[in-house]
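> example.struct
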């Protein structure tokens, strides 16, 4: 089975090992930036799911982060930069946003996330779109989009209402309040929370149990369960489009300035059309 690792060797920023038969563990490895998804790492995270899907040595995937974080989301250098024509930029960013979500949802192999530290934005998308999500009780989960003046467009609108209901989804997404792993379990945002020192062992036991389950029936079960997510595709598509439109707006520019300066942003109300 270890011979199959060579097929993943070109994926920059990801580390792979096989802690049990038929279990592939993926480590997001950018610890100096809390595992933020810079451009090479973002490309790798997009590409890995097709390889996993085709890998006969893998029945279950564990994904986690290096060091003290799971993934801090998109690095600033991977956010829309406006260096293309407007329409071309929109098409590129929209396709990229859809692709990550769709690849995780449509990957036939079950995915277990071990949320070992902060998970934000696109990092939180990876954590919560996993089929089973296990968080350390004390980690912080944070969507973060409204904090920088853009609509939540990575994953939240396709899955948060299904996981924890509309009331809790609105509360946490609209207030942008961080959630601990322990609270996330109580509102059903994650599958399970455990003490940090038990996380790796707990996730591995779950992965080994899944790896010993009838693989075809397990993959069919995942496909059917994720049908609920596929039904929300139109809502997700619109959320991704809105997020991209928000980038470069006056609100986004002010929110990013305030974020970098550690100040409270000052927004000027300017009604435009429907909004």
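> example.seq
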């Amino acid at each position: 089975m270890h011979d199959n690792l060579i097929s993943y060797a070109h994926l920059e920023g990801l580390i792979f090992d096989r802690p049990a038969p038929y279990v592939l563990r993926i480590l997001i490895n950018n610890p100096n930036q809390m595992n933020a998804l810079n451009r090479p790492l973002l490309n790798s995270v997009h590409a890995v799911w097709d390889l996993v899907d085709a890998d006969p040595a893998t029945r279950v995937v564990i994904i986690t982060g290096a060091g003290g974080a799971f993934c801090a989301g998109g690095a600033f250098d991977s956010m829309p930069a406006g260096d293309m024509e407007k329409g071309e930029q929109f098409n590129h960013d929209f396709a990229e946003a859809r692709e990550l979500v769709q690849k995780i949802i449509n990957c036939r192999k079950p995915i277990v996330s071990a949320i070992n530290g902060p998970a934000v934005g696109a990092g939180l998308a990876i954590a919560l779109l996993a089929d089973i999500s296990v968080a350390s009780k004390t980690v912080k989960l944070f969507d973060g989009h409204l904090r920088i003046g853009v609509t939540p467009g990575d994953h939240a609108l396709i899955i948060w209402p299904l996981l924890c209901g509309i009331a809790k989804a609105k509360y946490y997404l609209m207030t942008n309040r961080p959630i601990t792993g322990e609270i996330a379990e109580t509102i059903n945002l994650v599958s399970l929370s455990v003490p940090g020192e038990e996380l790796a062992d707990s996730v591995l036991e779950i992965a080994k149990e899944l790896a010993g389950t009838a693989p075809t029936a397990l993959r069919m079960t995942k496909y059917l369960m994720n049908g609920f997510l596929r039904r929300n595709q139109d809502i997700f598509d619109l959320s991704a489009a809105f997020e991209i439109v928000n980038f470069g707006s006056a609100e986004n520019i002010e929110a990013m300035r305030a974020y970098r300066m550690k100040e409270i942003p000052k927004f000027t109300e300017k009604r435009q059309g429907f909004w």
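> remarks
Residues 153 and 239 are 5 Å apart (CA to CA).
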